[in-house]
Design goal:
The complex is a heterodimer of chains A (347) and B (453). Chain A starts with a helix and ends in a 13-residue tail after the last helix. Helices cover 74% and strands 1% of the residues of chain A. Chain A is mostly helical. Chain B has 453 residues and is mostly helical. Chain B has one domain. Chain B is built from 15 helices and eight strands. Chain B has helices spanning 3-18, 22-42, 45-78, 81-115, 122-151, 169-173, 176-207, 211-247, 249-256, 289-295, 317-346, 354-362, 366-381, 403-434, 436-441, and strands at 156-158, 164-166, 262-263, 267-274, 279-286, 301-302, 385-387, 391-392. In chain B, the strands form four sheets. Chain B has a two-stranded antiparallel ribbon with strand order 1-2. The longest helix of chain B has 37 residues, at 211-247. The chains are: A mainly alpha (347), B mainly alpha (453). Chains A and B meet through helix 3, helix 4, helix 5 and helix 13 of A and helix 3, helix 4 and helix 14 of B.
Chain lengths: 347, 453
Amino acid sequence: MGFVWFWIVAVMIAAYVVLDGFDLGVGILSPFLARTDDDRRILIRSIGPVWDGNEVWLLAGGGTLYFAFPLLYASSFSGFYLPLMIVLWLLICRGASIELRMHINNEVWRSFFDGLFFVASALLAIFFGAALANVIRGVPLGSDSYFFLPLWTNWRVGPSPGILDWYTVIGGVVALVALAVHGALWIVLKAPGELENCARRAVTPLWIALLLVTCISLPATIAVRPSVLTNYEAHPILFLIPSLVVATLLGMLSFTRQRKPLAAFISSCLYLVFMLVGAAVGLYPALLPSSSDPSRNITIATALTGPHSLHVGLIWWALGLILALGYFITSYWLFRGKVTAESGYGH
Amino acid sequence: MDALLLHRLHFAFTVTFHYLFPQLTMGLALLMVVMKLIALRTGEDHWNQAARFWAKIFAINFILGVVTGIPMEFQFGTNWSEFARRTGGVIGQPLAMEGVFAFFLESTFLGLFLFGEKRLSKLAHFGAAFMVFVGSWISGFFIIVTDAWMQHPVAYHLLPNGSYEVSSFWGLLLNPWAWLQYAHNMCGSVVTASFVVAATGAYYLLEKSHQDFGRLFLKIGVIAGFTSCVIQIFPTGDLHGRYVAEYQPAAIAGMEGLFHTQKGAPVVLIGQPNESTQTIDNPLAVNDVLSFLIYGTTSAEVKGLDDFPPDQRPTALPLLYYSYHIMAGLGTWFVLLMLVAAIWLSRGKLYSTRWILWPILLSFPLPYVANTAGWMTAEIGRQPWLVYGLIRTTEGYSIHVSAGNALFTLLGFLGMYAVLSILWIMLVYRFIRTGPAAAAVAPEPEPATLTTA
């Protein structure tokens, strides 16, 4: 049961990263790609009907985590108190900027929300990347399974780490660049004309940056937590995952060159998924490792709730997910194709 | 200030602010469905226009509800980690179900409703509005199930590690407390939406602009408002009150300011509870009524606060008493106002009767106050328990998050929500001033400057 729920939560987090990832990416790129107010409106409209639904994966994933692994939820959310609160503020700013910008046709008003949209999107990507890196690095869990991390200490990976150190900053940069590429590929897919060309021209330099940071992050991870290799060495078949990371990375660029934007975007989705799966495999069965004493690790066994809850949960979760997939397919299908400057409500 | 108090203020402030938005959107979703239905059946386009106008106001409120709602789920873990650890196996269930069953539905169909009017047929667009309504009401249900379990825990058992898990899934969802609270709460949400719609109508008529829509809004607002105000008191409020009296007698004693156990207990209409003398100062009370309301007979004995050991009594007695009295007093005002308005509406004179239009206009903030006071009554009445009878509030908070850090983020939320409030009021006012006719002809807002807003 623990194994099943571990992967359920992992799938929901991956879905969140892939889906909200592209609209965060659009936010990160918006000031660089959009030249006119029409461009900006097209960018926002390309995510307008879906960004809110994408963000629901974060809530649904968080709720599922809370329900299946209450100890993990309690420990990590209180331990990562400060960065999570900052994430909440950024999510508020970002949601407000998307929704409020269109309502008043005034240069100052719109520029303000455009700026807020960019800053909040970029910082969110960095914080999410750093958060994942914190989990991989481990946290100083106490004997009561709780901890509290300051935002930063001495920027070193040591006995008293902060949320930000050299390793987690790398994680943040990887996320920033990966979501920028992801967003660029989405724009190529959805935007018409000059905007599409602009986004396509941005893919290559961003891709080179992504290749670079991905190559740095892998050895850095192994240096910070050598035990991530344990599962891989025990089951060499798992090395397929990092090779798929490489394959999808190559796919993004080559499909963009061949003018197959959908295939390129799907490659980018899969790249994000395989990066996350690779990390999850490295952690399993730990959920939140201790940075000092492996016996204090929060594992599936220590965090899992009771069996009755989990059995019942499996039934409604499966039902709910089938419904959710139905809605998503309907919505993406209805809003398929290129975005134009005229259609839609008020954007 | 100690950490416990700050964590309590943190949750209380963020949840109170959050609920300003859903209480409008849940009720408004129902009224928009009614408008779309009338449009569909009569083919009259101004009902579509009306729905489109309210959809814009709905969208702003919905998004603010979403972005202020995310912190609520997070705070169980961030500020109330020990509570989260011990109860996740139970209340994590409805919270996760809210995400899976309600939010996906709501967000998808809201996208279709707002962006899809040109792409969808009339019937499909009505369907999208209906699904937004269904989604928001399911969402409300799961939150009420969560709160009802904290008020009246059922269907759980204790695990060896000191945490709780669900022992019966249906027992949790069919908690009678949840259904009573749900009926009372959703009805309260319709009251808020009706008053906002009716007040907008009254404003247009008093201002002598958009008068066609003014009449339309006033009509639908008064009919829905009168119905919901009555149901709010009887049967939902009445039944809910009796249930509280049965399972949380100390809360009822605190709400009513009943310091001493007595037969033929009075209802205090006005008066200030004085904890040092254990009496009500300046009371205006009606004898025997409380006994009658709870037990159906005027001579029944009602337990007063002196019947409970001090560590079982509500910890913030005056606030509990005032919250309850504000809720009940406003509820009475709503029924009176809507009764008069409904009578004048049926006589065809409401639209020109200024002495009724003015109080309708001025009353629009009051349902927000009443709903907030109602929730405060429920949550302060539950004290000193976090989960009634199982976990005390003092045991639930995150002991590793210091008072300094909690104050830092509380101040952050105060500042951010102050800005959001200003933007919210400004934009809703602009929509109302621009009027519903513009919602049809110009999808893009007309050029305007910040200073005129």
